[in-house]
Amino acid sequence: MPSLLLIADTHLPKRAKDLPAEVWAAVDAADVVVHAGDWVDVPLLDALEARSARLVACYGNNDGQALRARLPEVGRAEVDGLRLAVVHETGGPDGRERRCAAAYDDVDVLVFGHSHIPWDTTADTGLRLLNPGSPTDRRRQPHCTYMTTTVTGGRLGEVVLHRLPVRRP
Known about the structure:
Phosphoesterase; Purple Acid Phosphatase, chain A, domain 2; Phosphodiesterase_MJ0936/Vps29; EC 3.1.4.-; Calcineurin-like_PHP_lpxH; alpha/beta; Metallo-depent_PP-like
């Protein structure tokens, strides 16, 4: 039963100096780490590649040429029979399920970022859409967040949204 860690919009080192210790512990525990873009700087990619058992990732709109040279616009993987894709942007929330179901009709789960707003819905086609929020930049959200889940025989397990403590300046 592979375990997955879903993160996005880390914006290092602009929004934080490093990932929270809780997220690094989740990286170390996960069988697959999925990052939905907006890394901002290459050292986090290097660190996640070194510490992750398996990394599935894409670049985001704030990622420069060095990251785009190493990451695809859409990352894809199969995990224990589950077809997964990760992309940074999916457009606005209105009609997201319909748009994504049409654009990603060959996957079971689409992980995305950009908004920093956690999202967990299922399209009429069965496509599951997940946005883990951001572990470092909560914007207008009450907490920084990330998600974990498992995969068994091609099926996604319970998705857990983890809320990180609010950092005080």
